[in-house]
Structure formats: C-alpha cells, structure tokens
Design brief:
11 helices; Rossmann fold; two-stranded antiparallel ribbon; seven-stranded mixed beta sheet; 18% strand; binds S-adenosylmethionine; 280 residues; alpha/beta; 9 strands; Helicase, Ruva Protein, domain 3; 2 domains; 36% helix
Length: 280
C-alpha cells in the first residue's frame, strides 16, 4: 500500500503495465508518492478546483493531485500504454479523473473543465515550454487558469524567474513576469526520477495576475522579445530592424537607447516599446 492511497506502489504499476520509459516521449517518471503529493501541494488549495494535468504517465502526480483534494483532474497523455494504469486510478477516485489520449499541443481541454482551474504537469522540456508560452500569451486576460505548477529543467526554471542583467533573462522571463507572479517552488535532483535525467529539475509555480503588469498587445510583445533575444548580443536597433523600419524612433519613444542590449531592458520598457509599435 502506498502512503497516499490504497493503489499499488508505482514500481508495481510500471511492472504490471510494462511501462518502460521511452526517451522519445521524454519519459522520466516520479515514483515517490510522498514527493508527488508535495508537488501537488505547491499548486495550492485544490479543493473545489479542476486541475488540468498534462502527461500523467503512470499517474504519480495524478494520484498526488487527487489525494490532495482536487475536485476533478483532466489528464492528457500521449502514450496509449499508460491508459490502463490511469484507468485503475479513475476507478479508485470515482468521477474525479478523466483521461484524454492525445497530444496536449493539439487538444483544447476547456470543454472538459469548469472554473476555477489550475494546471499541473511534469512534461518533456520542449512541450512544457511551448505550452507555457501559449498559456501566457492568449489575446484576452485573465486566462482560463488561476495557477500553473510545472516541472522544468532547472536551467529553464531559472530563465522563467530571471531578472534583467542576468544571463538567464530573456523571452520566458518577460512573458511569465508580464502577466504572472513566478517563483521556483521546489528543486529536484536527477535521482528523483526514473530513469534519472542528465540535469536537475525544478517546479515553477506561476499565479495569474488579474491584469498584466503593464499594458501591451500579447502578439506584438511576443514578437518583439523573440527578435530582441534571438540576437541578444546585438544592439536593439540592429536586433529589431526587421520589426519596423523606424525602430530607432520607437525605441526612443519607449525610453530605450537604440544602442542598448536586450538583456538589460526591463519588462516595463519592452511593454512601452510594444505599445509604441502598436500605434503603427
Ligand atoms: N507525470 C508523470 C510523472 O511525473 O511521473 C510522467 C512525467 S514524464 C516526464 C512526461 C509524460 O508526458 C510522459 O508520460 C509522456 O508520455 C507524456 N507526454 C509527452 N509528450 C506529450 C504530449 N505532447 N502530450 C501529452 N503527453 C505527453
């Protein structure tokens, strides 16, 4: 019996359903249910919340979210081999776990969820970053989610919470901090996972702000920061010349020296630049 529920230990689940980890799906599983419950607690008070979980795998975090009181968990998993293991969890928590088999990048989960909604996931790095950017850049704000609790490689987590002037500061920091409070909630060594990845990991918790910190159009801001940090060593007037022919004027209007480099420019100035460009 496991510490958090009456289901079998995850090692037994993996053996029973022959869930050998596949590198192509970024599978590094969390098998310690005390740890998955601790990660679930980072998502805040789940009672009365629907939780969207991406990539449940054999269901360690899923079990943590359910035992921590989530009203409902909607789990989207690409690997069909995991479905029987997830069905056993659904049986143990009647009416509280719905599983969709498919690619989270292609599925719109909103029809299956009711507010308030929180998101929790331990995902492969590339899928996680892509989803994070999508969740942070809808046209309308506030978004469908109240908070995101996401596992990343430690280095990516540091990019999300980075401040201007640091090497890690870039597109992720700006998009995350523009519309959310972001903090590193937990650090995990490679040995927390089976099989262990090459690098350390961290759980980032983001809480949606009621309004963005500074006004800006999401699409324009995204485009500007992508271009600015794509060539982060260049002066902004060069890095951004593809954005607008009169970029120097816009930089000056935003109070940014055209010779400045992206990594020294604060969020507020990038938003001012996006507003100036929006007038075009
Ligand atoms: N949440 C489980 C845990 O913590 O043990 C599994 C984590 S494992 C790092 C990532 C999971 O995401 C795998 O189960 C994998 O099959 C799934 N996955 C990978 N790409 C996906 C995608 N595009 N959509 C949905 N699930 C995906």
């Amino acid at each position: 019996m496991s510490a958090i529920d009456t289901l079998p230990p995850l090692r037994d689940v993996i053996a029973k359903h022959q869930l050998s980890a596949r590198k192509s799906l970024g599978q590094n599983f969390l098998l310690d249910l005390n740890l998955t419950a601790k990660i679930a607690r980072q998502a805040g008070d789940l009672a009365g919340c629907d939780v969207l979980e991406i990539g449940p795998g054999p269901g360690g975090l899923t079990r943590g979210l359910l035992s921590e009181g989530a009203r409902k968990v909607l789990a989207i998993e690409k690997d069909t081999r995991c479905l029987p293991a997830l069905a056993e969890i659904a049986e143990a928590y009647p009416g509280r776990l719905e599983v969709i088999n498919g690619d989270a990048l292609e599925i719109d989960p909103l029809a299956h969820l009711a507010p308030p909604i929180r998101v929790a996931a331990n995902l492969p790095y590339n899928v996680g970053t892509e989803l994070l950017v999508r969740w942070l850049t809808p046209d309308e704000w506030p978004p469908f989610w109240e908070s995101l609790t996401l596992m990343f490689q430690r280095e990516v987590a540091e990019r999300i919470v980075a401040q201007p002037g640091s090497k890690a500061y870039g597109r992720l920091a700006i998009l995350a901090q523009w519309r959310a409070d972001a903090r590193i909630a937990l650090s995990l060594p490679p040995g927390a996972f089976t099989p262990p990845p090459k690098v350390s990991s961290a759980v980032v918790h983001l809480t949606a702000l009621p309004e963005p910190r500074f006004p800006a159009d999401a699409a324009i801001l995204s485009r500007v920061v992508a271009a600015a940090f794509n060539q982060r060593r260049k002066m902004l007037r060069a890095a951004l010349k593809g954005i607008a022919p009169d970029i120097e004027e816009h930089l000056k209007a935003a109070g940014v020296a055209p010779t400045e480099r992206a990594e020294r420019v604060p969020l507020e100035a990038f938003c001012a630049l996006a507003r100036s460009l929006a007038k075009n």
